[in-house]
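Researcher: For the record, we're logging two predictions in this thread. I'll number them. Prediction 1 follows.
Model: Prediction 1, sequence and structure:
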Amino acid sequence: MSDSATTDDVLLRMEGIHKSFPGVLALNNVKFDVRKGEVHALLGENGAGKSTLMKILAGVYTKDSGTITFEGKSVESSSPREAQKMGIGIIHQELNMMQHLTAAQNIFIGREPRMWGGTVLDEKTMNTETKKLFDQIKIDLDPRVRVMDLVVAKQQMIEIVKALSHNSQLLIMDEPTAALNDKEIEELFRIIRQLKATGVAIVYISHRMDEIKKISDRVTVMRDGTYIDTVRAADVELETIINMMVGRKLDEMVRPDAKIASDEILLEVKNLNRGRAIKNVNFQVRKGEILGFAGLMGAGRTEVARAVFGADPFETGEIFVNGKKVSIKQPQDAVSHGIGYLSEDRKRFGLAVGMDVQTNVVLASLSRFCNWAGMIKSKDIGKTGEQFVDSLSIKTPSLSQTVKFLSGGNQQKVIIAKWLVRDSEVLIFDEPTRGIDVGAKFEIYKLLNRLVEDGKTIILISSELPEVVRLCHRVLVMCEGRMTGELSGSEITQENIMRLATTRETIST
């Protein structure tokens, strides 16, 4: 099944790569090669070693042993700048840009053209050179536009152009489509194909399995810090790739029965409005139901969730919990009424990443773990932390492990534990599997189903249509701030969701 490269077309070859951190063998005798002008997908679950391998290549980490050959020469990437000089660029998932600067200033930062003896920036030359770079890959963008005024997709294109301005022969793209809609993904793929045609090689890291066969030529799979295999993308089924990644066959899950166990309405929202973002939104969610919110990026799904949770103010509307009208002006109000919110940006809004697992688990209920004098009851915190680590199968070396060192899937479980400790009846999940590997996704899916079986109510916001189809009892579809339709049972298909997601007029249900 292995597909090795020949000597003539190899741009990069890594062999026998080992890397250890204190108490952890991160990479064990890993090999990886990339050919000129190919898209090579590097896949594996979180913790498989993909990022460590690429950070060694990009000069962030130093390997313990092994060899790296680039353009036929043995090389050592001692720093990111050294790797950049060699022609290796990396586009991180979390874009690292100066938001207040222009596109051109971001591209040439630290090496700006100057005039008058180097005392003044030559903005005209910088803008002209940037425009040439944009034209090379047919990007319609003004070099003078401020980055903060651009959508994520355009910012990402600037990062690509920045890498190309260093004459990069190899680009590493880490989860490049995580925050893009379908149209933006197609534009990114167009640029990738154009780069291929000029001989640039691309290492493509993604958890979105449907993209792999569309854009990649070969696929390398890693698991638990080891190399598993390299295969031609056209010759392998996605199920085979997934099995290679997780080392086991994942159980198929069918959509839950359209009949919900209870008719009890836990949460109702009436006539919710906030500017252009939310336009007269109405919905109900029942006990033991997974209610999906679908739509393209910018449809208003997250805006509705944040308004209901009190994170953003709304202009008009009413919220009812268990049939009673409630006032939710801030998150504390929502929490007191049994509503928990798992943000799409878990590191920013869901976790105290510098604190340990057990503290994060009790964070939303901390007053319960203090005595009359305000002193923290450490034993109770430890006991509760241990209970939920076990019940949710959170993989962590200990309760005292700092949360930022957990995988994405386990971080998500810690947030779920936090709201379960609080005994929230309604849980709003906003992009719960973004940046999570395929094995962890299935664990989250099973957990969501288990929660509704236990009587919890879930609102699921997801941009992954197969996820919505698989998990939800009902799906509400939004477009440009409006509800455009409701689907249930056999009506829940990707085709029906996309039809409603691109319809501006409200459809009666």
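Researcher: Logged. Prediction 2.
Model: Prediction 2, sequence and structure:
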Amino acid sequence: MKTAFALVRGTLAWGLICILVAGLIPQKSAAKPGKVVLVQKSQGMPFQVEQMASGLGVPWGMAFLNRSEIIFTQRSGRIGILDLDKGRILLLKGDFPRVKRGGQGGMLDVAVPNDYRAGDWIYFTYSKDVGGKGATTLARAKRKGDRLQDWRDLLVTRSATDKRIHFGSRIAFDGMGHVYFTVGDRGVRPNAQDLSTHAGSVLRVNLDGTVPEDNPFLTTPGVLPEIYSFGHRNPQGIVFDTSSKRLWAIEHGPRGGDEINRILPGRNYGWPVISYGKEYWGPVQVGEGTHKKGMEQPLKIYDPSIAPGSLLLYRGNAFPGWQGNLISGALKLEHLNRLAVDAQGKIGPEERLLQDLELRIRALVQSPEGWVYFSSDSGGIFRLRPVN
């Protein structure tokens, strides 16, 4: 009996020691499960879609700050953090500006470089009030706890109009000290061919907002030096592939004619002189046709328009069959659009996923695990991951 009591006492003591030690060793927590809303397959691989948050207005941009925190923007002007471990939303305070809300304008994209660490700069685009008009603006700030600090506008673009459409605006980094961001034509078509305005362009600046010395129009008289490419209608997706050094963009056409382009320095992508889209008021070709010397051809055309809201280059391990694919969220046709891309950059077959959800898919971001998170205009944030 005495021996048995000693054994029990020893077992309890060892258990207590284990509990105390476990409290001292950092434990790796798994993200809190979400509500499964859909199960599908892609290339024979089953995956599930889980809803992680709801009621967020229009979550326009998202970026991972670490394995468990997503920073997101709301077009209404707020910025928040989704804690995946706790399933909680933290709305950030701070000195970030009021946005010029209305139509397609507001707080837009958020992005961080691949080597981001806590306390580094976080980059944003938003529509800024400039004399009562809206101008797409690139800014950056630092996050400390529940606050954003040191907000700085890096480039208030010369794109202000009184239109409430075509602000762009997505952000990409090349890992070489440069940030790219897109600006739509701001509802004034000739802007895209006018190099004295930033509208209708892909812009490239250094991380501090200064102009790189190798920008294509740096020394060209009458051209804004931040312009990297022009002739764009409303690019709402951009991504830099650090493996192939390719810069990709996807943009809205008018009625038909959404485009995917490989962006090259100094090139003219044609809008509104050439287009594969039709006028909204009738079955009439926009511009002068589909081809013109000195203007680039798209690598992919969507007709009818899917209305792309984002672009992701997949480089994760969770979906091996998606490696190197381009994935975009479709707003009008409400699906996730996947395109195969070969080693030479040629675009291959297309797959349309998640159509049964009937969601306007806005932002896309890849997690460290290789899962895909997306937001919807109905206010949700969702996670797409393989079925275990």
